UniProtKB/TrEMBL annotation:
This is Response regulator with CheY-like receiver, AAA-type ATPase, and DNA-binding domain. It comes from Flavobacterium aquidurense. GO terms for biological process: phosphorelay signal transduction system; regulation of DNA-templated transcription. CDD domains: AAA. Residues 3-117 form the Response regulatory domain. Residues 146-375 form the Sigma-54 factor interaction domain. Keywords: ATP-binding, DNA-binding, Nucleotide-binding, Phosphoprotein, Transcription, Transcription regulation, Two-component regulatory system. One of its GO terms (molecular function) is sequence-specific DNA binding. The modification 4-aspartylphosphate is found at D52. InterPro entries: AAA+_ATPase, AAA_lid_NorR, CheY-like_superfamily, Homeodomain-like_sf, HTH_Fis, P-loop_NTPase, Sig_transdc_resp-reg_receiver, Sigma_54_int.
Amino acid sequence: MPKILLIEDDISFCKLLEKFLVKKAYEVTIAFSAAEARLAIKKESFDLILTDLRLPDSDGIGLMTEFKTAYPEIPVILMTGYSDVNTAVKAIKNGAADYISKPFNPDEVLLVITNALKVSETEEVTVKEKKSVKKTANSNTENEFVKGISIASKKLLDHIHLVSPTDMSVLIIGESGTGKEIIAKSIHQQSLRKNNNFIAVDCGAIPKELAASEFFGHLKGSFTGAISDKMGYFEAANGGTLFLDEIGNLSYENQIQLLRALQERKIKPVGSNKEINVDIRIITATNEDLREAVKNGDFREDLYHRINEFSIQSPSLKDRDEDLMVFADYFLEKANQQLNKDIIGFSPEVVTIFQNYNWPGNLRELQNCVKRATLLTQGDFIKSDVLPVEFFQVQKQQTNSGNFSLSENEKEAIIHALSKAQNNKSEAAKLLKITRKTLYNKLKQYNID
């Protein structure tokens, strides 16, 4: 199976092309920048390099020259959004195996790659073989922590790596659906307790009358309905990690019981006189402002400080725009496996709809949306007709608000956005609600420096 290194900073286009090439029997490693590409080529060997002409940290021709010098046997194909004959000639003169202008059709890119590799299309693997390979590679996707590329995601990852090896109590703060339990599991899996239990508890689902029994266990006959001995969450998590989700929902009385157990590291099952020593790490999560709850007298201040030795912010989906299609592609791959489907990716129209939607339900809503769309899709690509109706009821408020609409006075809008962003192109692209790649195209089109 030929191995291709795909270098492209337009995430949605890159993921779409990756899916297509995988389906056509190529093994693909993706890099969103020249720096990532240099690391990838040091770790493994490739049969072909497919790189965009314009990258955020390098010029494609310069990067191609660098790779051809170090790895002269690997053919390099350049992709560009600009149909410039001079650029094509320069690329070929500098050693490019071929040159392809975007947008290109699937048959065209296959032909160019096949010619560069000098291989026959008959060597393609079947869809079933490809799926079995992907299932093996992703056998543990259910609890996988997906690494985003946004600033918020990188900060989150840094904090997880920093706190995981310690035994500090961690408070994860974030909106519902942002993946707080996945973050907690990732901390546990990178800690010294990883070989012991990870016990997750939804505090909002525990009646306050039964909280002591649920947390600390009980003996048979200790109260009506206690027909047998029961081990509590604390004892079950002994030696490992106890994750208490939505801890702000605990009653004041239950907070006192929890605080005592955390301070003394001892528990007493309901109906027992015997104390049990427990060695656990506590990770908690909330979508509330616990500091405000402390001020209002709804949450104990001493418990707040006990569980908040280190806090981590779980970013919402709207705070990590660059990660949207990374997660969408991950959820599509997961849905393909669960539903025995083989959808390649998302149509450009769906990508645009996704990027303009607010995602109030965050990652949970995105996952549900992608899974439903995967089930309904009959072709190779998810199209807008399988999306829920709410996507079309939402008027694109972000586009209509402010003075950055590209619908008219396009050049002025771009200049205004660049000025507002202090010439930071990434920030300007966010203000304009377009990709960085599209902004580069517009800058060239209007000769804006």
